[in-house]
Design brief:
The complex is a heterotrimer of chains A (about 140), B (about 300) and C (about 500). With about 140 residues, chain A is mainly α. Chain A contains five helices and two strands, in the order αααββαα. In chain A, strand 1 (about 65-70) and strand 2 (about 75) form a beta hairpin. In chain A, helix 1 packs across helix 3 (about 50-60) and helix 2 (about 40-45) packs across helix 3. Chain C folds into three domains: about 1-195; about 205-350, no CATH class; about 360-500, no CATH class. Helices cover about 85% and strands about 0% of the residues of chain C. Classes of the chains: A mainly alpha (about 140), B alpha/beta (about 300), C mainly alpha (about 500). Chains in contact: A-B, B-C.
């Protein structure tokens, strides 16, 4: 799993780690039951504060994305989230809001925006299919 | 162990040398377990402040407290809880690497031989080599080893990586994260003064920018990165001469307008939208760019 | 505690070895108690000043003072090792003196006791206050010296004689001074602030300096060009020598004023003043010219500038040698003559020394300066350069004395066998007398060339290895030995030929 940080994104560092772990889980780079890198080596590799990585992992654990097994490390949980549906909806709604604001700034019209959403959903499904095909090989 | 929340507390510190005021009314606080960055131009007063923490210089007025103790009055108690890596690392010319480490160990009640062995191997330092024959990077590594193996609660670094090659710089930071922080995560404080801000960007929790002996800006790193933004707008024709008093810096070039803002980004974006630009982008700033923007 | 004491001892070891050599070797060869005391004085002051001066020079003060150890313990460690070194030096001198001269007077005991004591108590304070190695040492010597001088002066003005009572007062005052300055030094160390600037220069306050130097600047502004700039820079470097000359002049003038009242005391002071000055001045001028730039870390940079290394070296040597000659030899001579003329003691019939003998003195001064230059070129440090030069001079004199002794004995044996008869005595004496200075000056000139050559090669290659230094020293002393062998042989052969002719 490759995590790359962007200090120009304006996002807190630990959130970037959280998001990238989540993205890795969603794209299949990290599979259920796979171990995450330990805190110290990850912090050394990214050259960020060890406590930031610890905070990110704590957040991930709080969100139910990973679980810590004592003595063995952190592992990615199975893909069903324990959150209630409305909580999950709310989290996705936040992301959609951010995208809408960005579209507004960049003068992307509503119709164009919805077309774009469809396009990206199709692309995401394509990637998933490709990964499943590969996993079956 | 005291329950003092702050590892370092500086209150209205003033230090005069002759007639120059190196430090003039500086205040900052470093909580335990934080990685605190101390940024400033050359000659801004960083080294003077650090020396006041160690009783290498005495404050003219104001107070300095390390773990709640006064470095002037309780010198040994303060120094027993911290380790210092100076900007100019010099050892006695006849000492070998082993001698230096044993010499530094003789002052400390706790000395981690295991960490010492690991770091010697990691840095590939030869025990029997003369300290004066080491390159600058190796001398800094040796000084860092001497500081970390003593297992202090506070690590004070003064311009630790200036003049070092990129590989040694990375290893330095990795050692601070790994060998130092990992041993006791909540209780290991790092106070680093540097002007190579991009190197330490990931490490820093909170920072203070010192300019002309005064604290120009004190912020948490994440907050700073979210508040400071660079907004670029391109117009079809030359932009109207509208003022942006809330922006820190405005730059006009032909049809383009570039604003550096600290907070207030929403209002400014709205006003720019109203002017009908061709393109409008927002970009957050790295700590180094924030440093430059804050001091211009 | 052991690691710290070991470090302090190791730090002081090279200087201690040098000073021990300086004390012991002349005693073994010449048994001169006066020189022994002088050497002990030098040793004490250098040791005491190095104790803290080394920390400044190595720039390890930050490292030392940021360790979790009370400053009182650091002070105690340094003073312990320094005290041991001083006691060892005194003991060495006493042993040497006892071997040759079983009896020493009370005044000598006093000197032997007070020299190390004043150095021990005073030098740390002065070094820490002035933050300058040599300056601290000069002050450490001048301070008790001025106390004694003031006391004697007061005694003079009151018209009293030098009595035992006066001695007692002197002793008490000195003890008081020692206690005071030790306490002050300790207090200063406890409150020492590490400013971490590079080594300071020993200089007058800036305003006084500009006033004194103003006429010179106006004159020198007319000379431009790279060589002239180099010369100006070199003269600026030598300002410590000029300061020392100033001190010498002050003492000489003070002694001169005393000649009316107490001619014997005045002559004694003047003699000591001139003696020390004439010996020390060339060494300081020579060492400063090379070592100060090394100490400031500028030597390498200078070698990268456009003027060739040879040009820079010529400028340096020109200034160093002329300063040593002018200030170290010509000035005292002129002053001596002027003083004698003022007192009306100058006899018109005093024979002026023959040219060859004057030449010997001049070249001797040049040799001293060159040895100091060489000493400074192998150490990086003015003080150690001077010390090395002193040790080298003493070793050289010892070697020469031994070889000449051997040759003279051999020649005497040959003469005793009676293979030749003597010609008229006074004719022989005149011939020999004419030859000796000429040969001596030639020999000295050769030595100057050899030493200068090696110093120049060290300057150019900047960091001579231990092996090359060893080879150089071997070459220098080899040449010296050959000369010491050759010159008496030539004289003996001349005697032979003259005798048999």
């Amino acid at each position: 799993m490759l995590i790359q940080l962007n200090f120009k994104s304006g996002k807190p560092v630990y959130l970037q780690v959280v998001d990238q772990v989540k993205a890795a889980a969603a794209s299949g780079a990290l599979q259920a039951g796979e171990p995450l890198p330990s805190i110290r080596p990850l912090a050394e590799q990214l050259r960020i504060n060890r406590n930031t990585v610890a905070k990110a992992y704590a957040e991930l654990e709080g969100q139910g994305v990973i679980e810590t097994i004592a003595g063995r490390g952190c592992f990615l949980k199975e893909n069903h989230s324990p959150f209630r549906k409305d909580v999950r909806r709310k989290m996705v709604a936040e992301e959609i809001d951010a995208a809408i604001v960005q579209a507004h700034h960049l003068r992307v019209e509503e119709k164009e925006f919805l077309d774009l959403v469809k396009e990206r959903l199709e692309a995401f499904e394509q990637t998933n299919k490709a990964h499943e095909a590969k996993a079956q090989e | 162990m005291s329950t003092e929340p702050f590892a370092i507390e500086v209150n209205h510190l003033v230090h005069k040398y002759g007639r120059t005021e190196a430090v003039n009314d500086l205040s900052l606080q470093v909580r335990r377990g934080q990685c605190y960055g101390f940024f400033g131009r050359n000659g801004a007063g960083k080294t003077t402040t650090i020396k006041c923490l160690l009783n290498l210089l005495r404050p003219t007025s104001g107070s300095v407290q390390v773990f709640g103790l006064d470095p002037v009055r309780e010198e040994v108690a303060v120094k027993a809880r911290l380790a210092y890596v100076p900007d100019y690392v010099a050892f006695y010319p006849w000492m070998t690497v082993r001698h230096v480490l044993d010499y530094l160990a003789s002052f400390r009640p706790r000395w981690n031989r295991k960490t010492e062995r690991e770091l010697l191997g990691q840095f590939r330092l030869d025990d029997a080599k003369n300290a004066s024959a080491l390159s600058r990077g190796q001398r800094t590594q040796l000084a860092l080893m001497g500081a970390i193996c003593a297992e202090p609660e506070l690590l004070v670094l003064d311009e630790p990586t200036s003049g070092l090659d990129p590989i040694v710089r990375r290893e330095f930071i990795q050692t601070v994260i790994g060998a130092y922080q990992e041993a006791d995560p909540g209780n290991r404080t790092v106070f680093v003064s540097t002007h190579l801000i991009s190197e330490f960007e990931g490490l820093i929790d909170e920072f203070t920018i010192i300019e002309n002996g005064r604290a120009e800006l004190t912020l948490e790193a994440d907050e700073a990165r979210s508040r400071y933004k660079k907004i670029r707008a391109r117009f079809a024709a030359a932009p109207p001469a509208v003022e942006f008093p809330e922006a820190r810096q405005v730059r006009r070039e032909g049809r383009e307008l570039e604003l550096t803002v600290n907070g207030h980004s929403e209002e400014i974006l709205q006003r720019l939208q109203a002017l009908g630009p061709e393109a409008l982008t927002t970009e957050a700033l790295t700590l180094e760019e924030i440093f430059v923007a804050a001091l211009k | 505690m052991n690691a710290r004491l070991i470090k302090e001892t190791r730090d002081l070891l090279p200087v201690f070895a040098g000073t021990l050599l300086l004390i012991v070797v002349p005693q073994l060869i010449w048994q001169a108690a006066g020189f022994g005391c002088f050497a002990l004085g030098v040793a004490c002051v250098v040791l005491a000043g190095s104790s803290f001066g080394n920390e400044f020079q190595h720039r390890t003060l930050s490292l030392l003072l940021s360790q979790p150890i009370p400053r009182s313990v650091l002070w105690r460690d340094k003073m312990l090792v320094l005290g041991a070194a001083l006691v060892a030096s005194v003991a060495a001198l006493l042993v040497c003196l006892a071997v040759h001269r079983p009896q020493t007077e009370s005044t000598e005991w006093l000197v032997l006791l007070f020299l190390p004591l004043c150095a021990f108590c005073g030098a740390p304070f002065w070094t820490l206050s002035l933050r300058h190695g040599i300056g601290g040492m000069v002050a450490a010597v001048s301070a008790p010296g001025s106390i004694l001088a003031t006391l004697l002066l007061i005694n003079e003005l009151l018209g009293r004689e030098v009595t035992d009572q006066l001695f007692a007062v002197c002793v008490v005052l000195l003890l008081f001074y020692c206690a005071l300055v030790y306490g002050l030094g300790y207090a200063r160390f406890k409150r020492l602030e590490v400013v971490d600037k590079p080594a300071r220069e020993l200089a007058l306050p800036a305003r006084l300096e500009t006033i004194l130097v103003a006429p010179l600047t106006r004159v020198s502004a007319r000379f431009q060009g790279p060589f002239a700039t180099l010369l100006k820079k070199e003269f600026r470097l030598q300002q410590t020598s000029f300061l020392l000359t100033g001190v010498f002049l002050l003492i000489a003038v003070a002694a001169f004023c005393l000649t009316q009242r107490r001619p014997d005391v005045a002559v004694g002071i003047l003699g000591g003043d001139i003696g020390v000055y004439v010996l020390i001045m060339p060494l300081i001028a020579g060492a400063i010219s090379v070592a100060e730039e090394r100490g400031w870390g500028m030597a390498e940079w200078h070698l990268t500038l456009p003027p060739s290394a040879l040009k820079q070296w010529s400028a340096k040597m020109l200034v160093a040698l002329s300063t040593a000659l002018g200030l170290g030899l010509l000035l005292p001579t002129a002053m001596g003559l002027a003083g004698a003329a003022l007192l009306g003691r100058l006899n018109p019939g005093v024979p002026v020394l023959p040219v060859a003998q004057i030449l010997c003195w001049l070249i001797g001064s040049l040799l001293l300066t060159s040895v100091a230059v060489y000493g400074a070129s192998i150490c990086g440090n003015t003080l150690r350069g001077i010390l090395t030069a002193m040790v080298m001079v003493v070793a050289g004199c010892a070697l020469t004395a031994w070889v000449v002794n051997r040759v003279v004995r051999l020649a005497a044996n040959q003469l005793a066998v009676g293979r030749m008869s003597y010609g008229p005595r006074h004719e022989l004496a005149n011939q020999v007398q004419a030859m000796v200075p000429v040969l001596l000056s030639l020999g000295l000139l050769l030595m100057v060339c050899v030493v200068q050559w090696f110093a120049w090669s060290n300057f150019r290659h900047f960091r001579p290895s231990a092996r090359s230094v060893g080879t150089q020293l071997a070459a220098i002393y080899g040449a010296l030995g050959l000369l010491a062998l050759g010159i008496p042989l030539v004289i003996a052969l001349a005697l032979l030929r003259h005798g048999s002719g």
